[in-house]
Sequence to fold (405 residues):
Amino acid sequence: MAEMNPQQSPETQAAAEKLSAGAQAFADAVREADRLISNPPFEVTPQEMAEGHEYLSGSIRSAIQAAFNYDLEHPVLFNPTHQYARQGLDNPDAIYFNAYLTEGASYVLSGKRGTTADLAFQIMDGNYTAEGSPTSVAAFDDRELEIAEDGTFEWRFGPELGLNKGASLIIREVSSDWTTEERGTIRLQRLDTAGVPRGPFDPDVLSKKYHVAAKMLIGRIHTWYAFPQWFTYKEPVNTLTVPKSTPGGLASQFSSIGHYDLNPVDGREQAMVVTVPVCDAAPYQAIQIGSRWYVSTDYEHHQTSLTRDQSQVDPDGKLRYVISESNPGVANWLETTGHPLGLTMLRWQRVERDLTAEDGPQVQVVPFDEVEQHLPYFEQNRVTPEEWKARIEARQVGVASRMIS
Fold:
């Protein structure tokens, strides 16, 4: 507890005690979160332990942000997930926005559509927890909006959706080409409180926000320990599922998930070759690597994800990716970056039809020194060290110009 200043009034001292208790509750949660990360339910390497604490630092930041941005009277869109605060096998191609909603209120979401591959909206009746996923109250993309010739749009919604206190709005703006697509603008306003100023800071409210942040922090870690057990690790290792609607996800998104083990076999390095057809029914198609913390790996300085626009398409209309630690010298190499065990996810968004097994990936695990034999267009797939450096530079520029934190 903070030391009290005897020069302050009794009322001010009482407020300080209340706020100090809130801050202490969050400090206790940070210690508990550190214990959970330092003792994960799986074996990790020293590198992965360091990554776990990077994940922890982002989770601390995100919990504070979410709790202190919680304002039901004047809701704001905030960005809780990005390269410095990863969670839930976050999509490297997405900018995420969240806002909290409440029952009985009316809202307008307005903005200007950019040129990104997808702009999708979802209202959920709660948050992900270690017990399960919330249900979607609404889920659609901008094809259901009336967008004017200048790109502007407006969506009004409220009590007709049956919103409850604790509902959340999630917006995902997804790019396929990080360098050429332009983000749009989005604004959320609660109509029935427009023009009404916020009241003064309240010690009770701020103390409660510390307690909420503490609960969010611990809940976030427990949730993403549990989530992959439900959907990913129940699948056989070194396989990818048939594309299906993403659990708890968007109405227009299909995904294929799996986990890999590329530890050496008989002293020989292993690689995974993933072959998937170009899907004309989905303008956005992508693949990514994830760590055992159920977060994206470093997509800014390494090629750990690729969209269709970033990928090389073979003459037969197939995308062939090589997942490995060592560089096979091809354009569609996905770097495991020191993760012989990890996660793989493919996404298709803005789909125009249900996807089937024929749209999905085929997987082969082969000795790394035999990769060339499994790439029928290997010579066309080659990239020089200079070309690879240019690809990484483009990623760095794309993240810097596109992401927000």
Notes: The first helix runs from residue 10 to 38. The chain has two domains: 10-228, 231-402.
